[in-house]
Amino acid sequence: MENLTPKKGDDDSNDATPSKRNSSGNIVGYLKEKNDAELIYRRQELEVKKTATSIGGGKVQTRET
Domain coordinates of the chain in residue numbers? Predict the structure, then answer.
């Protein structure tokens, strides 16, 4: 019985685009933005904890991940 599905080597068309690699500059920029966003989030979280402890005078419940 014949196999009706074409094999990868039998394809004569060159329409396939080569895969692109991310440049290291893009990766470094992404990681820098991610780090900056995390720092801002942590500072805001600390501010909330400070205000909650000064208002409530007790222990603040935090969500641990």
Answer: 25-55
pTM over 0.85: no
33 pLDDT tier (thresholds 50, 70, 90): very high
Q: Could you tell me which of 42, 40, 48 has the C-alpha nearest to residue 65? A: 42
SS (H, E, C) 29-56: HHHHHHHHHHHHHHHHHHHHHHHHHHHH
Q: Cα(25)–Cα(31) distance, rounded to whole angstroms?
A: 10
- CB 58, CB 49: distance < 8 Å: no
Query: What's the token pair of residue 32?
Result: 């820098």
Q: Which of 45, 43, 48, 40 is nearest to 65 (CA)?
A: 45
65/61 Cα distance (integer angstroms): 13
